[in-house]
From TrEMBL:
InterPro entries: Aminotrans_3 (IPR005814), Aminotrans_3_PPA_site (IPR049704), PyrdxlP-dep_Trfase (IPR015424), PyrdxlP-dep_Trfase_major (IPR015421), PyrdxlP-dep_Trfase_small (IPR015422). Its EC number is 2.6.1.44. It comes from Acacia crassicarpa. The keyword Transit peptide does not apply. This is alanine--glyoxylate transaminase. It holds the Pfam family Aminotran_3. It catalyses: glyoxylate + L-alanine = glycine + pyruvate. Its cofactor is pyridoxal 5'-phosphate. The lineage of its organism: Eukaryota, Viridiplantae, Streptophyta, Embryophyta, Tracheophyta. PANTHER family: ALANINE--GLYOXYLATE AMINOTRANSFERASE 2-LIKE, PTHR45688. One of its GO terms (biological process) is photorespiration.
Amino acid sequence: MTSFVAARRVLAQAKPLRWKRCFSQLAEQKSDVVVGAPELPPFDWSPPPYTGPTSDEILAKRKQYLSPSLFHFYKTPLHVVEGKKQYLFDEKGKRYLDAFGGIATVCCGHCHPDVVAAIVDQTKRLQHSTVLYLNPAIADFAEALASKLPGDLKVVFFTNSGTEANELAMMIARLYTGCHDIISLRNAYHGNASGTMGATAQSIWKFNVVQIGVHHAVNPDPYRGVFESDGEKYAKDVEDIINFGTSGNVAAFISEAIQGVGGIIELAPGYLPAVYNTIKKAGGLCIADEVQAGFARTGSHFWGFEAHGVVPDIVTMAKGIGNGIPLGAVLTTPEIAEVLTRRSYFNTFGGNPVCTAAGLAVLRVLEKEKLQQNAFVVGSYLKERLTELKDKHELIGDVRGKGLMLGVELVTDRQLKTPAKAETLQVMDQMKEVGVLVEKGGYYGNVFRITPPLCFTKEDADFLVDAMDLSLSRM
């Protein structure tokens, strides 16, 4: 407002030519402002002027040198140059509310000073050696991480990603049980390597390559599922798969507590306890994929599976574990972990000192800043406001999720639940222009995935909902 008052004073004293010049400059500065849009919460930091390559130059290099499989969001792709806490800045200095968190990865906030300091300090002293030598970073982080898990889940294997963690978990289960069959859920996403692609159950993520040994059970989806919220009825399908599709014994059952890529699908109540019991009777292990739902994101618990009252045999994690550093992990019991001693198992970068130093810093920040509690309080408030928005806009078919892992599904017909794919893209683009970044997911690409940094505030939540309200009103 101050800038406009100053501009008016200049205009009042200007000659006609200067008037035109001033108007031109103001129009250029405010050309990306959407009329009637809500205002971003105040923030006392802005990046220095950007002097790097333009968006067109970057796009040209991507097309020439990077895989053609890479794609970007938005009609006009976003050029991000800096991040701070829950905000991102483009090359023009425009600030955006990051409600996506780099695919549920940035949990402490962009460039958190404690995490950055841990990375820089470790990098200055020792960037890499090997786990064949002793180093305190990996041991300290393993101890801290194990303390967050229940029961006898105390042995850690570090990896570089969630895909790698799930690959290892599936191999461990097959080695331990002597069985090959694994049961996953339809609509699941567990990675895109050879084994995890088999466990993934959306055609868009599956190439036509050999994928064997995985059976996909009916998804316990309370919104689109045939049994609605009756978890035990869905669980019967896992029992049928074992009886009619296997030898009667299985290696493992793998699932997320809340499906992320699948569209923020919460598993129906009562499902996991029933399935875990069935898998145990068949001699199998239960794998909890916490790549997206872990690390305090759901608010009520540190891990997604805890809300279901179950204790898995193996837990996999990545994304939020390092706040953006390439890091993943598999945790299991000493007995199960023993199977990897039958041969030599090694990972050159798994347990890298810089990555594990970052991971330990993340855990400390989560505790020090009480980000799990914040995820619960702000997430509950945000979900309530989004639910109110559903009453206002027929295009919203469902609002779901927990903490700061929320989904908003758009449909053109609430009775038929017809996916509003085109409308989702339009609303997403309009929200970006207002200053909010969300991501679309789900099999039909019609679900807004809201997974911001856990330092999100109620003011941020209000801005997000108001931006979505405005964008939906224009449809």
